[in-house]
Amino acid sequence: MAADSTPALVQSATSDGGPTPVGPSSAARGPRARNTKAYLQYAATKIVGAAVSLFAVLVTSFFLFRLIPSDPVKQMTGGRRVSEQQLENLRHQFGLDQPMWKQFTSYIGDALTGDFGMSYQFHTPVIDKITDALPATLLLTGTAYVLYSALGIWLGTRTAWRNGSRSDRFNTAFALTLYSVPSFWLGLLLIIVFAVGVGPIPGMFPTGGLESGGESGFAYVIDVAHHLVLPVITLVAVGYAQTLLVMRSSLLDEMGSDYLTTARAKGLRDDVVRRKHAVPNAMLPTFTLMFVNLGQVVAGQILVETVFSWPGLGGLFYQALSVPDLPLVQGLFFVFATAVILANTLADILYPLLDPRVGR
Amino acid sequence: MNEQAQQHPHHRTLLAAGLAAFSLTAALATPLNPFPQEAQAKDSGDKTTLTVAVAQSVDSLSPFLAQRLLSTSIHRLTYEYLTNYDAKDNHVIPGLATKWESSSDKLTWTYTIRDDSKWSDGEQATAKDAAFTFNKMMTDEGAATANGSFVGNFKKVTAPSDTQLVIELKKPQATMTALDVPIVPEHVWKDVKDYSKFNNDDTFPVVGNGPYVLTGYKTDQYVKLERNKDFWRKTGKPQFDEIVFKTYKDQDAAVAALRKGEVSFVAGSPALTPAQAASLKGEKNIKVNEGPGRRFYAIATNPGARTKDGKKFGDGNKALLDQKVRQALFRAVDTKAIVDRVFQGHAVQGEGYIPPRFKDYFWQPSDSQKLSYDTKAAAELLDDAGYKLKDGKRVGKDGKPLDFRILCHATDPNDKAIGKYLKEWWGKLGIGLKVDCIDDVSVPWYAGEYDLAFDGWSVNPDPDFVLGIHTCAALPTKAKESAATDNFICDKKYDELYQKQLAEYDPAKRADIVKQMESWLYDSGYMNVMAYPNAVEAYRTDQIKSIQTMPTAAGNIYGQDGYWSWWSAVPASSSDSGDSSDSGSSTGVVIGIVVVALLLIGGGVFFGMRRRTTADDRE
């Protein structure tokens, strides 16, 4: 059963050399040793590449956000009575009176130790603001990610298998329609219909936030889950189409293949041919997409987080940009970029295991 | 109890539990807990809660750092200030200080501190706490972040006894009864190591002596306050047991929450839009409150950017140095049309610099002085200034056409709409206009790289601040650097009047000088006040029976200068609330049906999967 679930290509590449060598000594001498060495070299290259990219992001983020014309001190004190002395103190407090090169070297030095400085507007270390908001974002976008990936793969498979049928046309068109809907608009619509209630539909869910406040223990878990429903539905609705389309098109590519005809000729049921032969092979492009999306899980969804007042990184990034709170903007940008780079590196490292043609 | 620390482990537990598990509980949650918010917003058991939807994040809970309206409003509720403002008409009334007097040379102020105010941990609040607060701001850079300007003119602050506070000044200062500084308990704050970093959000409840005690806070989610049973002011004491400021980052979502009853009150930032107000009007159990705003909305001209020592910078159009040109622009703006069409009636036509809400300082031009809307008069002024009409364009003596740029806030729809009208109106005069809408106007503004700009300020009961931003002292020391100035206005006569009003302790005489300053500003044409936008907000009458506006007659609720709105709010009794119980029970039925349907579908899918798996295994 286990071999059955492995993609056909992977299957032929790993088991063609007869019985699998057993024990460390045989592994070190056999063809697998060469493969392992090549794979490790390949993985090392990818990891070094990722490290270089991260450093480049660090440097870029410093200069990129200094290109935005802004005066953080004025923004911070906007609308308040401030004396010249206070303005000067603030500039000094945040190191804005230092020459650019000095700001740059201390930024790089601190960032390498995980210190992104103090947020201008919240008077709190940037890293604390990020770690405070990260769980909320992971919870929201992570849940949505699991759901829209699963839904996309499932529906993509079904629509491709029934290519040209009425359900295929309907599902594809429906998904594309939702895909093109602005997420904040859909979110607001869901709030009006399912949070406030329209006609016979009662308001069942909260209008926003992560919790009602004051709950603890299991009641708290239930309360958070209750708050999670509408934003997750919004993200899933606008997000599953992408996975569906990729899955559908790659399965359509597979459908004419000889190995499927062979499987069918063996007398296997259509259902089994699809799940155990066609889908695993068609999954490769979908895996790539899933890893790309995985990197974006950390960045959150700015608009959806805003509409649902979700206290995550997306909303924080928006607030940081509107000041602009440079240390916070830089810190968040670095975290977002790191997540994408790590997800891509992980994809690169895992891909040869899924498709042995890669990384040789 | 440390509520924040206590709730953090939840996040870890949730994450550890796994994201997938959450998607399952999400589906399960509905039938178990359909209305947690509604229950909370109303009468939860024996506790009454008032929930206020707010759009801002708390920048800090430290009175030494907080600058935003939300944070300072919370401080008004949790700490006493030396003085307060009367709800009826904004006049100064006792706070922590029961009375105050100044010496004959106007340089020493003595405040009598009340002996019946206690900190929420039981200690007595004394003059020593006040002296500590001011001294900390005078000596510690970090502690001066938010309110440092109040103590800039202080020479020495002492507390000879528990009930006596003495402040010595460098020069006379009329704002000594309007020191909007929260007084903190010395015994708690003396241990703070770095005032620039301490946010006062580690330990709850926070020790204070205001009508409410800060009991809980979660970043970007909520701030909770509980009634302080030992508050000194006993008459008309607060009736809601708890106030919760709940964050809504999207105003439409906040309006939806009000409609549902999840929050009791919603204010805009700064006002609900005309569309939101219109949609809420006539809705059952909702009252839209519209009061005169505390803001003015104006067009400012660039009178030539300069530093304190007279160094010129920026690229403002030289034509605007001519008062006649500025006044011509002034006279070609139809403020009535702006109020009617852009604000859709939710504003008052503007003239003087200070809104009519502050009636002591409100000033209007006399008929002869009035620069009313008159395009013919505007054209004549331009002719006089040497800008003749040639092929439909106003052309100066140097042959150059008269073209201006106006800085507009990209985030403000009013700026954009009025920009279009100005283009049309000034276009008819032969003047070209480019509307530059950008996210952050402060950079070109402080670089002096603009001709005109949409401008607006909130005015305090004491007008010193908004008057001070036009003095020469407010100009920047270095070119392009942010400074206290608003528009680089620097005029000897205006400055003399400013100093005179600051040193004048007689309220009537001071008001007279302030009006002279407004008159000067009007004539100069530097500031064209077009409107005073109204404060538009709404609340649920089935949750709040009555609430104090400020000023009492047609005033606003959110962002008052005192704490009167939340202090005075009376909870609606259960008989006042609408038919929510009915809708609750019908909702229960619908939810029940949905749950049964979900269980049936889930069960069907589960058995289908099982059957299929068995079939596969057979093969």
TrEMBL record, chain A:
Classification of source organism: Bacteria, Bacillati, Actinomycetota, Actinomycetes, Kitasatosporales
Superkingdom of the organism of origin: Bacteria
Protein name as it appears in the record: ABC transporter permease
Organism, as annotated: Streptomyces citrinus
UniProtKB/TrEMBL annotation, chain B:
Official protein name in the record: ABC transporter substrate-binding protein
